[in-house]
Each structure stands twice: as structure tokens, then as C-alpha cells.
Amino acid sequence: MFDRHEAKAGLALVMLIASMSAQGASCGPTPSAGPPPIDYRKATPESLRTVEKFHFTPNVETLRKGESSTSIGRDLEFVLTYFPNHPRALNAMMRLAKREKSARPGGAAEGVDCWFERAIDFQPDDGTVRLLHALWLVQRNDKSAAMQELEVARASAPPANANYFYNLGLAYLEAGDADRALEAAHRAYALGYPLPGLRDGLKKIGKWKPAPDEAGASPKTSTERVEGSPVSPETAPPPPK
Predict the structure, then answer these.
(1) 3-state SS string over 145-200?
(2) Residue 125, Cβ neighbours under 10 Å: how many?
(3) Where a domain ends, among 95, 124, 153?
(4) Is-contact 122 85, C-beta < 8 A?
(5) E strands present in the chain
(6) Distances (CA, A) of 174 to 56, 162, 167, 170, 171
(7) Spatial distance between the Cα atoms of 149 and 130, rounded to a whole number of angstroms
(8) Are 108 and 165 found together in one domain?
(9) C-alpha dihedral over 79, 83, 87, 89, to 10 degrees?
(10) Nearest CA to 158 among 220, 229, 97, 90?
(11) Domain containing residue 206: CATH number
(12) Neighbours of 218 (CB within 10 A)
């Protein structure tokens, strides 16, 4: 039996999810920033610098403050208009939405769902976007849709990106698929991922077990994060003090 405090907390959660769904339900026309949008994976350093220098500074990415205006959301939308599949900007928009408990953070003209919809329409084969979208859907408590996105992300996984497999495992774990989470964890740790959070999460629910060949594993590959891969909560920049 729930006491009345638990009942109120549960009602608040339901109301929050309903509110987020309503806010992200309708997408307007794609904003125009002049030139056609650019695939982040193929963007030149020069084109990225032109936009990121003024709109995706450390202050914006760490959600401290807006750079070109007082609105973090507005800066992130500017970046996503030019680079719809910019993974770090999408991740920052997700974190901003979570912090503000709104699918359309303050200052943003569009909801997070719209920016994911545009990114997927723009580059449907971008596995990193699909993985981030799955994490967002889990956050929205839409685990069925998240599982569909995770299957696309899993099929698109780069073969030697430890950070990608780690985030894939976290998403599967949060979506409730411990077997897929364990499989991704084995790949991430075999590639040298250093943080124990995914393993600890699996241990907590009694689902962790070492990979069959762990004892005789070959030397691990680099743990350097590949540019464009999502940032897990453990590797995200710390909040401002």
C-alpha cells in the first residue's frame, strides 16, 4: 500500500509526463538559418567553429548560461538548426529539459522531440542520434519506443567505441532489458571503458556476470571518447558550483 505522500509523488510524476508529452506533441516548420543544414559527421572544423564559437561554448554545454543571449535553449537551437544531428547539442538540450522538467526548455521555441524528429529525418542512419533519442524516450517513460530506437542504435554501433557501448548499455538497463545491457557492458569494458556505473547497475539487480573470455582478454584498445559519441551522465561536465 502507498501512503498519501507516495500517492502524491506518483500523481506528480504522471502529471509531469503528461505535461512533457503535450509540450512536445507538435512540431512547426523547420527553422531556416540561411544555408542548408550540415551533417555533423561530415562538418569541417571551420564550419563547426563558425557556429560553436558563439553558440556552443562551455557555458552553454554545461548549462551555466546562454552565450549569444540570456537563453541557453536559444543558443542550442541555433546550433541544431545548422547541425541537426549535433550529438553534444542534442545531449545538452536533453539535460536542460530534464533540469527544467519541461520538454520545451525556457527560451527554446521548439520541444526536444521536434529536434530529434528533425535530426532523424535529416540523417536516419546516425546511430548516435538514435541512441540519444532512446535515452530521451526512457527519460519520458516511453520504454516501448525507446526499445525500437535502441535496436537501430545497436545495429549502427561503431565496432570500437567504448563510450558508445557504455551508453547503449545504460539505455538498455534503464529500458529494462538487462540481457542487452550486459552484452553492451561486456563490449564497453573489453574496449577499456573505465567507469563502473553500468557494471554496478547490473550487479544491483543481480544481472552482472563477467564475459566468458574476460580472463584471457587481449590488450584493450584506447578509451579515448570518439568525437560525436554521446556523453554519459558519469562523463558529463560537473554542474557549476
Answers:
(1) HHHHHHHHHHHCCCCCCHHHHHHHHHHHHHHCCHHHHHHHHHHHHHCCCCCCHHHH
(2) 12
(3) 124
(4) yes
(5) none
(6) 29, 18, 11, 6, 5
(7) 6
(8) no
(9) 10
(10) 229
(11) 1.25.40
(12) 7
What is the domain range of residue 61? 34-124
Q: Could you give the CA distance from residue 232 to residue 171 in angstroms, rounded to a whole number? A: 10
Indicate if 43 and 100 belong to the same structural domain. Answer: yes
* pTM for this prediction: 0.76
**Number of other residues whose CB lies within 10 A of the CB of residue 121:** 10
| Count of domains forming the chain | 2
**In this structure, are residues 162 and 191 in contact, taking their beta carbons and an 8 Å threshold?**
yes
What are the 10-residue block averages of pLDDT along the chain, 241 residues in total? 40 39 53 80 96 96 92 94 96 96 89 95 96 95 95 94 96 96 97 97 97 61 42 42 40
Residue-wise pLDDT for 14-25, tens only, equals 334 344 444 444
CB within 8 Å of 122: residues ≥ 6 apart: 37, 39, 84, 85
Residue of 195, 189, 191, 188 lying closest to 165 (CA atoms): 188
Cβ–Cβ under 8 Å, residues 211 and 240: no
Does the residue 203 lie in any domain? yes
The number of C-alpha atoms within 13 Å of 94 and in the hemisphere containing its C-beta is 23
Q: pLDDT digits over 116-172, tens only? A: 999 999 999 999 999 999 999 999 999 999 999 999 999 999 999 999 999 999 999
Domain end position, chosen among 99, 124, 149: 124
d(CA 36, CA 45): 17
